[in-house]
């Protein structure tokens, strides 16, 4: 810790302590008396349990002159009359570049057994406001995410925000690990919100691996932790991303998942007495989602950006459920993972016809747009006739467009399939896509010479 940060912490120490008393406990909700005039929404208190254990809490509302608090930990040992100390009202962290390669909890405390985290000189608010819209930079150029299907059909630009929508068990976590290992950005900040505790270590060691972890900071809040910890983990992920962005780094922010963040907000809202609005979600959930997601994107400075990829766990594979619908309207594109594609063993199981990147086609040149348009047409034509083709009801020669789609179908499926340890190249991907659909692609892979490729598949050669 530097002398500057030490002096600041000393100056923040109070000359005296203010405390109140617990006047009621119901479920996870604690009622507090004696501090109501000193507290506000978001203020922090520390409860002292019967065994002297300290339980940090946050104010979520007020009722009949009493403050309503939710805990960041277990309420075991908390009863009527327990002391509650007034704590820091605006929680902040002091991150530094030494946090790379580390795993922290929602409060910014290390949980990887590698010792304490070095403190940086500047504080960063955990709950921060997005940059002003009129002062933000525009999104940058295309970035190489290392996944062929996304690079070619759903090109992502520096500072863009994309959603990955899927049901459970369709491959979201594996796709995130591929993006973390292969993306050509400076730093990864990964938030695992409400993850299964058993799978965290497996994901870190097997999927992310030492190479991916070395340029990442991972924030973990497992499903058994209180809702405040799961919500706080999402805020912590964004605060760390903002630190690296403000230091001129291009950050890849990966969050899995926004749905579990929304579920934690629902639990908090219902505990505070909010009425449920849609599928049990309270109005504060839909107010909080844009405040969280808008923190990603380009910053005010020319250098540095946060490219956000946020997963959404759709309930019952319904992509129009309330959270999916709300998030889709906030982000700059969506990647749909489909169970039917996963069941035929094509991973990543991206349904390209239902997925959109809002920076396309503006980020591509003419050749690349023509190539992607042609490939999409082939995929769409095959998909429209897929059932008839599978049952043998379609007769070859009945429609030249369908015959062409059938001809290139297997090559396109092979192109879209990618092993989780296989890295793809942005420029090479266009060349491979052109070869898969029988087009001659200009040398160099950059698509120069717009509109000059020729159809090789319908001139007597097989795909």
Automatic annotation (TrEMBL):
Subcellular location as annotated: Cytoplasm
Signal peptide from the UniProt entry: none
Main location: cytoplasm
InterPro entries: AAA+_ATPase, ATPase_alpha/beta_chains, ATPase_F1/V1/A1_a/bsu_nucl-bd, ATPase_T3SS_FliI/YscN, FliI_clade3, P-loop_NTPase, T3SS_ATPase_C
SMART domains associated with the record: AAA
Domain AAA+ ATPase, residue spans: 158-342
EC number(s) given by UniProt: 7.1.2.2
Gene3D superfamilies assigned: 3.40.50.12240
Tagged with keyword Ribosomal protein: no
Key words of the record: ATP synthesis, ATP-binding, Bacterial flagellum biogenesis, Bacterial flagellum protein export, Cell projection, Cilium, Cytoplasm, Flagellum, Hydrogen ion transport, Ion transport, Nucleotide-binding, Protein transport, Translocase, Transport
Pfam families, per database record: ATP-synt_ab (PF00006), T3SS_ATPase_C (PF18269)
Family: Belongs to the ATPase alpha/beta chains family.
Name of the protein in its database record: Flagellum-specific ATP synthase
Record lineage: Bacteria, Pseudomonadati, Pseudomonadota, Alphaproteobacteria, Rhodospirillales
Protein's gene: fliI
